[in-house]
Amino acid sequence: MVDEGAKDKIKGKAKEAMGKMTGDRRKEAEGKMDQAKGQAKSAMSDAEKRAKDMKGSLRDDER
Fold first, then answer.
1. Is the dihedral of CA 22, 24, 29, 30 positive or negative?
2. pTM listed for this prediction
3. What is the pLDDT of residue 61?
4. Under 8 Å CB-to-CB from 19, ≥6 apart: which residues?
5. Which of 4, 1, 2 is nearest to 39 (CA)?
6. With b meaning 16 or more CB within 10 Å and e meaning fewer, what string describes 20-53?
7. Cβ atoms of 8 and 37 closer than 8 Å
8. Of the residues 19, 31, 51, 60, which has the maximum number of CB atoms within 10 A of its CB?
9. pLDDT digits (tens, 9 = 90+) for 33-53
């Protein structure tokens, strides 16, 4: 399953490329922003996963 961050990064790459091809600087900038948003979402998802793993690990140590 593709996470939301990856979707935003792909969408951003496409927008940026389209903006470059057509000379639309605004579309190009929107694409870069979408990519940054995707990176942030991916980082948050990774942090949440690590926190859950750590929480599970701590519970296993208590037993």
1. negative
2. 0.77
3. 60
4. 25, 26, 27, 28, 29, 30, 31
5. 4
6. eeeeeeebbebbeebbebbeebbeeeeeeeeeee
7. yes
8. 31
9. 999 999 999 999 999 989 888
